[in-house]
Amino acid sequence: xxxxxxxxxxxxxxxxxxxxxxxxxxxxxxxxxxxxxxxxxxxxxxxxxxxxxxxxxxxxxxxxxxxxxxxxxxxxxxxxxxxxxxxxxxxxxxxxxxxxxxxxxxxxxxxxxxxxxxxxxxxxxxxxxxxxxxxxxxxxxxxxxxxxxxxxxxxxxxxxxxxxxxxxxxxxxxxxxxxxxxxxxxxxxxxxxxxxxxxxxxxxxxxxxxxxxxxxxxxxxxxxxxxxxxxxxxxxxxxxxxxxxxxxxxxxxxxxxxxxxxxxxxxxxxxxxxxxxxxxxxxxxxxxxxxxxxxxxxxxxxxxxxxxxxxxxxxxxxxxxxxxxxxxxxxxxxxxxxxxxxxxxxxxxxxxxxxxxxxxxxxxxxxxxxxxxxxxxxxxxxxxxxxxxxxxxxxxxxxxxxxxxxxx
Length: 408
Ligand SMILES: Nc1ncnc2c1ncn2[C@@H]1O[C@H](COP(=O)(O)OP(=O)(O)OP(=O)(O)O)[C@@H](O)[C@H]1O
Ligand SMILES: [Mg+2]
Hints:
It is built from 16 helices and eight strands.
């Protein structure tokens, strides 16, 4: 069929032709934005889930709704190696300048700029030519203690008060939130705690891999009180069918029921895989309906493409030690895995595996769904690992075996 008209959209953050199965969380986001704007208390949202389930798509959608509702929005994506402060400052500066253009009496916006300047001094981050343009002195002692858990809440409160004065609201949306350090996360959580206490119109909505199990102590209990953590998971069979059928129906094409069944079996309902299968099935079909046979033909192409791209780019970033760790996980099935079992499988002591585990977490390959457990962040990665390295024996086990063999 006409490839130009192919409705499917595999790709990071690409809006799907049909946002299936997410009505509940979108409704929660609408209610949250509506309530915060009216300064009513509401738990905020941290959308968590594995790779390719549609978190970025949802966050972008929520950003659009917030803008439509009159929010000033800040949408940022965390990185492995960029600090929260460095990411936020240019955006907050823009928000404050936009607020400054709204005519109203009051000093809160100018104060906000002063606090931002003091924050900037304390984080000792060079912004080069980040020109403020306004003749406002940094407000000494407001957000310049150098302790992010104190300074960030003060800064965000100043921004929120500026928005309140201008009768508007601010939404900060952060993607890939798991990349922040624990002290950055706890600074954000403390800031939101202050917002809620003072009922200020600033909301934080995050998305990323599951972070709650990694938080500890006070931050964790605050986080649980301040945020809902909707689990963005695979789609049900019904929603998966809708995600495939509705976009093609709009073009007078349809999938046969057994083709939909087969695609669901292969994708397990994971949205990114659904887009890939839909896309290839459309290209393989010559006419409507898209049959089981077409779906099966498409599968070979999809499997190959996923192995060469989606999975492979992640695999290629790994050191040999990291690959070995992941392969030992995959040996144990689809997970989650007890860290002790992984160690046993590797023939290594658990304590010696700390660094490789930490670097895999930092690379976003694995996460800890519960204390003592590990799991892949990429759906079906265990199968890929077994396909790529069919035979597995750890280095430690191999050398002990060859050692034994050489002793008479
Ligand atoms: N509800 C949905 N129905 C159908 N397809 C969807 C849905 N949500 C997302 N997709 C598709 O899934 C793919 C991945 O979406 P997205 O990039 O938002 O995932 P993600 O969770 O942010 O992944 P990552 O953790 O890798 O950043 C995109 O191709 C998108 O079109
Ligand atoms: Mg994403």
